Amino acid sequence: MHNLSKFTEFPILVTIRMRALSSWFGVLNFFIVLGLRLDSLVHGNWFIILLPLWIIDFFLIVDPVVYLALSLQHNLKCWSFFQFSYKILKVILTVVFKILIALRLEYDMHLELYQILTPLWILLGLLILDVSVLLFKSPPDKDLPLPNSRPMLQYTSLSRIDPAQNNNNDSNKT
């Protein structure tokens, strides 16, 4: 068995930075174009308005595919097919949600609100499941003290300062 960190240690750091930067840039572009569209300064197709988000979704699909291909190429057993399909399912649910919103806004289709929001609700349920598994799967940190065993913090509140003390300090300065 090969160690995964041999070929992914540096690229993961670069990928995380680039992923964050490109995501922020894409979301910023989306909000700029959305604001222009809502102010009627731009008259474009809603699928074009959502283009920055489509680009982010494309990279969210490509990333697990490349990671899985690299791990299969180097005979690593770091991901199961279930984890791979689960990541792709979450991205597909977001894409379906965006397609339904764009169809409703662009072509005035008579889609009910629950039909449009169903992929989002499923996605939110999956994200709640992700967070719950991560919380209950990881053991508690033994180095952190329990909340009852921490010493009380000593601080001075502004409301507890004696005004006479402030006046004495001010008179001493002059």
From TrEMBL:
<keyword id="KW-1133">Transmembrane helix</keyword>
<protein>
    <submittedName>
        <fullName>Transmembrane protein 60-like</fullName>
    </submittedName>
</protein>
<keyword id="KW-0812">Transmembrane</keyword>
<feature type="transmembrane region" description="Helical">
    <location>
        <begin position="44"/>
        <end position="68"/>
    </location>
</feature>
<keyword id="KW-0472">Membrane</keyword>
<feature type="transmembrane region" description="Helical">
    <location>
        <begin position="88"/>
        <end position="107"/>
    </location>
</feature>
<feature type="transmembrane region" description="Helical">
    <location>
        <begin position="113"/>
        <end position="136"/>
    </location>
</feature>
<feature type="transmembrane region" description="Helical">
    <location>
        <begin position="21"/>
        <end position="38"/>
    </location>
</feature>
<dbReference type="InterPro" id="IPR019396">
    <property type="entry name" value="TM_Fragile-X-F-assoc"/>
</dbReference>
